[in-house]
């Protein structure tokens, strides 16, 4: 790390610590540890004609279930309180007729205990973590500092409350969440499977086969893109499977690990968000249906042609591969890989087990376990969606739980692999058992980053970041109707980037968009697409996104290298997408919004070739 970066990082840390101590020194925390309302806090946006509720006690019908609230209380079990009401923001926005008045009362009550709740302060922890990670190139300490900052902001400077919030509401709560633990178990099992395939020589054999059939770096990159497009079921599964299969091929053709991780990441969420049969489609459909849409899947399908960021990202990948050019930090990584054979350039250098590969290994030793893994994961997904209890395949997939399905699938695959390799006699039982902890250890960095990222998200959630952003969206809904898709896109990018979760962004913004637009408004589909595209874009850029972390793990690439090299590419496509949403919004009233798609595709091609020409001149 350069002296300038060190100096900047130290300045940020000093400023952060100074702010924390000033909270306590100036008595911002109250005697009971609660923080009073902050000056300059965001104003809750209400319609001019909204009326104050007659009573703070009322009930809301959510899908036939009556939920009772008393906004004089902070929280409750049978009768919910103000904090519970705000937590159910999306449901209440759709189902509570007095929502605009009730949400003001609820947030005011919550701020009696959490002074910075639903203010711009909620975005400070992720901003600190992201800036430090990009400046220092060190992700662990950056995330931990961001988490600590969130704890102190939440506690209003009270040291004991802050530490308890970070440890128990943060780390412990994140690791005790069943969905999160399912993802960690899936990571561990997949790491074990990859280790087994490497030990058996399957990865090395596939690399040798591919080197004969894939003749160039362009071919290796296009094969990675194609495989990523074919594995559209789930982004986690996509990242780790494509990485395991294509890593030896790309290493052979001198494709840098930074470029491989970009290709993996860019074919994960962007592909899943335009695939009707995927865990992402199921999530979006669920959010839309819960917000009152007649058919969530139908809405998802209609939005695909307007999901500009995903479509333009796929086009950009092909242009980068076929056009044989790169720019920004990626250019250095690719040049170093091509000229010096160094696929890492900086950061962690993973010794490839394939160098000591088992000579008995064959291509089938990689292909067959991966095929079984894919089939088993599909089985696990539809099983979790109650397909075998009478649900249709589509409904089962829509209702599936990815963490359950992927754990079932990976467990079946690893049992199959152990039995298969023993029958094939390419590896002994002792070597099989020895490879299991090796696979676990390979996934420890990804698990550690994920744990910190989930904890940081818990900090921002506890500070009401989503509520703050959602109010900004509602506040801009009345004006600039034609620009609203572009505005929603930018807000979704910011929220997803700061929180590291695209699904959380869907959950809060989709109900708002559906409440703003009538079903017959031609802008509605474009705005929904902008919400999804922005969420994917922010997720794609964010160093604290679980998908970004998975892509780094799948490519075995230093995480900050992946983030810093990918960011210019993602921001370029984001800029083109923003312009295209402005065009789509302007054309929507005349029913010509779809014309924006070919315009955007042409803009993408033109922009990238201009960048190629400029970078070529500089070289």
What does it look like?
- With 619 residues, the protein is mainly alpha-helical.
- It is 70% helix and 2% strand.
- The protein contains 28 helices and two strands.
- It has a two-stranded antiparallel ribbon.
- α8 packs parallel to α11, α9 crosses α18 and α12 crosses α26.
- The protein is globular, with a radius of gyration of 25 Å.
- About 6% of the residues have low confidence.
Question: What keyword list fits this structure?
Answer:
619 residues; mainly alpha; 28 helices; 2 strands; 70% helix; 2% strand
First-last Cα distance: 25 Å
Mean pLDDT: 83
Sheet with most strands: 2 strands, antiparallel
The arrangement of helices and strands along the chain is HEEHHHHHHHHHHHHHHHHHHHHHHHHHHH
**Uncertain ranges:** 20-54
The tally of beta strands, per DSSP, is 2
Q: What structural category characterises the helix and strand content?
A: mainly alpha
Strand content: under 5%
Q: What fraction, in percent, of the residue positions are helical?
A: over 70%
* Widest sheet: strand ordering: 1-2
Q: Specify Rg, calculated over alpha carbons.
A: 25 Å
Shape call: globular
């Amino acid at each position: 790390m350069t002296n300038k970066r060190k100096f900047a990082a130290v300045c940020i840390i000093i400023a952060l610590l100074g702010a924390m101590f000033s909270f306590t020194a100036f008595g911002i925390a109250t005697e009971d540890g609660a923080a009073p309302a902050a000056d300059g806090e965001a104003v809750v946006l209400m319609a001019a004609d909204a009326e104050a509720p007659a009573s703070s006690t009322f009930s809301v019908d959510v899908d036939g279930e009556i939920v009772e609230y008393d906004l004089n209380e902070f929280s409750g079990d049978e009768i919910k309180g103000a904090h519970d009401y705000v937590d159910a923001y999306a449901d209440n926005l759709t189902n509570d007729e007095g929502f605009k008045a009730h949400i003001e009362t609820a947030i005011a009550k919550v701020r009696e205990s959490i002074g910075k709740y639903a203010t711009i302060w909620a975005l400070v922890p992720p901003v600190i973590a992201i800036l430090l990670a990009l400046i220092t190139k060190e992700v662990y300490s950056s995330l931990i500092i961001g988490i600590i900052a969130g704890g102190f902001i939440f506690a209003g400077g009270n040291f004991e409350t802050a530490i308890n919030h970070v440890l128990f509401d943060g780390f412990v709560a994140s690791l005790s969440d069943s969905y999160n633990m399912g993802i960690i178990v899936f990571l561990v099992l997949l790491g074990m499977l990859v280790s087994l395939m490497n030990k058996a020589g399957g990865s090395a054999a596939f690399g040798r086969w591919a080197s004969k059939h894939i003749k160039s770096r362009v071919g290796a990159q296009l094969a990675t893109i194609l495989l990523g497009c074919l594995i559209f079921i789930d982004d986690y599964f996509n990242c780790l499977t494509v990485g395991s299969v294509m890593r030896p091929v790309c290493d052979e053709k001198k494709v840098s690990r930074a470029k491989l991780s970009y290709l993996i990441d860019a074919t994960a969420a962007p592909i899943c968000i335009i695939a009707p049969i995927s865990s992402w489609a199921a999530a979006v459909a669920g959010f839309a249906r819960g917000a009152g849409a007649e058919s969530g899947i139908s809405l998802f399908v209609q939005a695909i042609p307007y999901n500009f960021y995903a479509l333009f990202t796929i086009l950009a990948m092909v242009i980068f591969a076929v056009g044989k050019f790169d720019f920004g930090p990626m250019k250095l990584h690719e040049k170093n890989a091509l000229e010096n054979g160094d696929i890492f350039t900086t950061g962690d250098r993973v010794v490839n087990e394939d160098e000591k590969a088992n000579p008995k290994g064959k291509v089938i030793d990689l292909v067959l376990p991966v095929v079984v893994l894919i089939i088993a994961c599909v089985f696990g997904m539809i099983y979790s969606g109650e397909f075998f209890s009478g649900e249709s395949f589509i409904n089962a997939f829509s209702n599936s739980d990815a963490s359950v399905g992927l754990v079932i699938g990976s467990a079946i695959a690893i049992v199959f692999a152990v039995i298969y390799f023993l029958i094939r006699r390419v590896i002994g039982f002792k070597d099989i058992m020895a490879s299991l902890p090796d696979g676990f250890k390979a996934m420890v960095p990804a698990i550690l980053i994920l744990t910190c990222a989930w904890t940081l998200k818990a900090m921002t959630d506890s500070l009401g970041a989503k509520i703050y952003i959602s109010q900004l969206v509602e506040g801009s809904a009345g004006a600039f109707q034609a620009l609203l898709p572009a505005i929603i896109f930018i807000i979704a990018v910011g929220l997803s980037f700061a929180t590291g979760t695209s699904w959380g962004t869907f959950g809060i913004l989709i109900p708002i968009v559906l409440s703003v637009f009538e079903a017959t408004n031609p802008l509605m589909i474009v705005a929904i697409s902008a919400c999804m595209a922005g969420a994917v874009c922010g997720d794609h850029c964010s160093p604290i996104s679980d998908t970004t972390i998975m892509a780094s793990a799948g490519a075995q690439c230093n995480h900050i290298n992946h983030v810093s090299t990918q960011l210019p590419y993602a921001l370029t496509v984001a800029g083109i997408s923003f312009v295209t949403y402005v065009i789509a919004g302007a054309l929507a009233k005349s029913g010509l919004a779809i014309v924006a798609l070919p315009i955007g595709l042409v803009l993408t091609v033109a922009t990238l070739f201009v960048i190629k020409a400029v970078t070529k001149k500089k070289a």
